[in-house]
Specification:
Distance between the termini: 30 Å
Helix content: under 10%
Largest sheet: 19 strands, parallel
Structural class: mainly beta
Number of strands: 41
Strand content: 25-35%
Length: 608
């Protein structure tokens, strides 16, 4: 059972409403238990029973906690919030969001995708649960631009399609992004995977970018301070059109582009790779992986298998078997990925990360299957770690786990000297000239100045390595949420599915060490949450073959050396590489956007 303790790093909806003009806006109240359709629905006391969204723009819809409706909810130019006490209001079905603010819902996804998010929206503190989903789908699909996806939980998706071929097989994804200018922060994705016979293992993933057609670009996206557990990978990216419906997308002249994107300050536990990239159909420019902590425990082999344990994967060779292509083989050789040499300067940057492999005391699995030019200030565990294709630089080290002196939920302590002050400052503009699109600093404003527990970065003489920054006296990385279970006996905050916010509870809910609680869901990033409205790939995924693309750590004042302070704590694309063979998987189609919007995603998966 997973439980979470949230610190509320997202915007306050009530504060937002209070400060915003409400011209022509109307309040509507709905209560599936005590409401009446003969009432006017204008107050809590006169709430309606049947949930029907108002027409017009600027309306505020209030859903009574403890309520439940079975429907496809469409939120367009509206604010959807909750009132009363108890569990989140439940939508049994799916939610579509466009130019809206949606918070506090629980989506019990029955078929397809949980939530589809178009442009200009904020989705926060929602929970999308795929336990009863009968089809392959995505927790949340972010298909438009200018969205903020904060403090959400996506959990328990286990459907996987084995189509018999690489191009029509795939699994569930947590949060999938298909457009530029989006921020995905403080979310938790847990338990997304299912067996896939075609791919010879498991399929599923936590976070992803899919660029669905040749010559299109996704830029300025930040995935930061998120948590990932019991899935197949933390992050994946590809153009997604492996069937080459756009015209041999594997040909470098037709590649999609992913640029000015960061994956930083995330914690991933038993979720295979940090990244799975597909340079065979995508040009990556200024793709920054910074201050992530990637943990492989023995559970890795309980949930998966030994061929899926690498932490950095790519697909650079692919034989296109699509009709009419005659089995053409593409072996990537571009300015961003050179055949035999890997990712070139400024393409993919890996710095300040901690990679831990504790799967076995005798077998050390290869961590990276591809070479990188830009990798700095990383720590690899154990001292006998197999780093694969990487040749470690002077700023990198291999050490045993005891040397890091982690807490039980993978935070640094005062004894974590190999990581404390050993990192470097991260700035997206450093390699921004490699990209065609300009870096938008507003997207990354809060990415690098706080750690996963909202400690100020740096808190001391320099930036620490990994997802947590050690700050003595700031609430501490070692128990700000209380010792394990200190918030109450296990489960006091309620089971995850009913009260994900948990105010006490077992490890992760009131928390073992670390203000976000233990490594349970939401625990890592503290503010937790689950966005309930997603959408995304469905059967075909995000804009693959022609699909539409859609358009704080508060301060920890401390001295430089003592680290004292008062801070507030605050693919479905896998690829198979067995015997040098590349395995790809197709995405799935999703019905969405106030009607039916078909998205197509092509992905690959690689087994180490």
């Amino acid at each position: 059972m997973f439980q979470t303790r949230r610190l509320g790093v997202g915007i306050s909806l009530l504060a937002f409403l209070a400060a915003s003009p409400r011209v022509l806006a109307a309040d509507s109240y709905f209560d599936s238990v005590g409401g009446s359709d003969s009432a006017d629905g204008k107050t809590e006391a006169t709430a309606k029973l049947t949930l029907k969204m108002p027409t017009g723009t600027g309306n505020i819809v209030h859903l009574k906690r403890g309520s439940s409706w079975t429907m496809s909810l469409s939120a367009s130019s509206v604010t959807v919030t909750t009132y009363g006490d108890g569990d989140r209001p439940i939508i049994n079905g799916s939610v579509s969001v466009s130019n809206s603010v949606v918070e506090g819902l629980k989506v019990l996804n029955i078929t397809g995708n949980g939530m589809n998010v178009q442009g200009g929206s904020t989705v926060q503190d929602c929970d999308i649960d795929g336990t009863n989903c009968t089809s392959n789908g995505v927790g949340m699909g972010v298909m438009g631009t200018g969205n903020k996806i904060y403090n959400n939980i996506v959990e328990h998706y286990h459907n996987s399609v084995s189509g018999g071929q690489m191009d029509n097989s795939g699994g569930a994804e947590g949060i999938m992004v298909m457009a530029s200018n989006n921020e995905i922060a403080w979310n938790s994705v847990i338990d997304l995977q299912g067996p896939n016979a075609t791919l010879g293992g498991f399929e599923g993933g936590c976070y992803e970018i899919v660029n669905g057609k040749a010559k299109s670009t996704i830029s300025n996206v930040s995935f930061h301070h998120n948590y990932c557990e019991k899935s197949v990978g933390l992050w994946e990216a590809s153009s997604g059109d492996f069937s080459a419906s756009g015209g041999d997308i594997q040909d470098p002249a037709n590649h999609g582009i992913v640029e000015n994107v960061t994956i930083s300050y995330n914690l991933s536990v038993d979720a295979m790779w940090m990244f799975l990239l597909q340079p065979v159909n995508t040009d990556f420019k200024n793709l920054v992986f910074a201050n992530n902590t990637i943990i492989h425990t023995p559970n890795t082999l309980v949930w998966f298998d030994a061929s899926h344990t690498s932490m950095g994967l790519d697909v650079h060779t692919y034989t296109n078997t699509a009709a009419g292509d005659g089995g053409v083989t593409f072996d990537t050789d571009t300015p961003y990925y050179k055949k035999g040499a890997g990712f070139q300067p400024g393409a993919v940057i890996v710095k300040n990360n901690i990679f831990v492999d504790t799967i076995s005391t005798t077998t050390h699995y290869m961590m990276f299957s591809t070479n990188l030019t830009d990798h700095f200030n990383n720590i690899f565990v154990p001292a006998k770690a197999s780093v694969g294709s990487l040749t470690l630089g002077a700023t990198e080290q291999k050490i045993d786990l005891d040397s890091l002196a982690f807490t039980s939920d993978w935070r640094l302590t005062s004894a974590s000297t190999p990581a404390i002050d050993k990192g470097v400052t991260v700035d997206m503009t450093t390699n921004g000239s490699v990209a065609t699109t300009a870096v938008d600093p507003t997207i990354f404003a809060t990415t690098f100045n706080q750690d996963i527990d909202k400690h100020q970065v740096p808190c001391g003489a320099g930036v620490d390595i990994g997802a947590s920054e050690y700050c003595e006296g700031a609430g501490g990385s070692t128990g700000s949420g209380g010792a394990t279970g200190a918030g109450g006996a296990a489960g006091t905050g309620g089971a995850t599915t009913t009260t994900p916010t948990g105010t006490g509870g077992a490890v992760g809910s009131g928390g073992a060490q670390g203000s976000g609680g233990a490594k349970g869901r939401g625990g890592a990033q503290g503010s937790g949450g689950a966005v309930g409205s997603g959408g995304g790939q469905g059967s075909g995924g995000a804009q693959g073959s022609g699909g539409a693309q859609g358009s704080g750590g508060t301060t920890a004042a401390g001295t430089t050396d003592t680290r004292t302070g008062t801070g507030t704590k605050g693919c479905s694309c896998r690829l198979g590489l067995g015997s040098g063979t590349f395995r790809n998987l197709d995405g799935f189609a999703a019905a969405l956007l106030l009607g039916m919007l078909t998205l197509v995603t092509r992905r690959r998966r690689r087994s180490g």
